[in-house]
Amino acid sequence: MFSTQLRSTSSPVQAGKPTTLALQVRNAQGQPVPTLPLSHGKPMHLFIISKDLQRFEHLHPEPRGDEFVLEHTFDTGGDYTLFVDYARPGGSAPVERHALRVEGPPRPTAALAETSGTQHSGGLAFTLHGADAVRVGAGARLHIAVADAATGRPVDDLEPYLGAMAHFVVLSEDGQDFLHVHPLDTKAGQGVAAHAVFPRAGLYKLWVQVQRQGQVVTVPFVLRVQVGAPPQGAHPSHH
């Protein structure tokens, strides 16, 4: 049984001021575990997500002594959850989470609402297919077509990012259900896709990360997961 403990050099953490976040992994005996197997090229993946789901960071603490450490500056105050994803020696386990309160002016509040099928980021147009067919408990194939925003032509030069052609992170509106999934195989020019199972009905935010020309591009979507059969004519794929 492994677990993590979080500490910060600032107490309280202040928005706009750098703070060092340190995570210590401990084994069942409470002893520090300073070395972890690599998972997609990194020993640890840290996702920092604000309570309102407006702020998203995918970061990578690096080993320092018996901890995994990074420096981070929160741009606004408020409540955040830190999701810690790492490979345990000998097997996998659920992603761990830590609540963190950041002092300082909060960002303006905005209600979560479903997004349109196409979102733009980093000069790219991302179109989500299959969202209307997502149902509770049924495996869903989420396909993202990626095109050049200026020309509309499909992009065929995406590059591997952390050992995968994309990373998908999904979080329910209430912050309880977290998914970090990696893509299914797709051919160049056909975008990226992932398989996910949603445990409950409601709104979910999806962040998709790809890399092109050495730059990581993150694009968010909000989709609604419903109970019941998919709409007539929808054909979700299963993997």
Structure in words:
The chain is mostly beta strands. 0% of the residues lie in helices and 46% in strands. The protein has no helices and 18 strands. The strands form four sheets. The protein has a five-stranded mixed sheet, with no helix packed on it. Strands 13, 14, 15, 17 and 18 form a five-stranded antiparallel sheet that branches. The protein is globular, with a radius of gyration of 19 Å. The C terminus is likely disordered.
Quick recap of the structure?
This protein is mainly β and 239 residues long.
- SSE string, helix = H, strand = E? EEEEEEEEEEEEEEEEEE
The counted number of beta strands is 18
Q: Name the shape in a single word.
A: globular
Sheet with most strands: strand arrangement: 2-9-8-4-5
Helix run count:
0
Give the termini distance in whole angstroms: 30 Å
DSSP strand (E) fraction? over 45%
Helix content: under 10%
Tell me the major beta sheet. Answer: 5 strands, mixed
- Overall residue-averaged pLDDT value: 91
Radius of gyration: 19 Å
Low-confidence region ranges: 233-239
Kindly name the structural category.
mainly beta
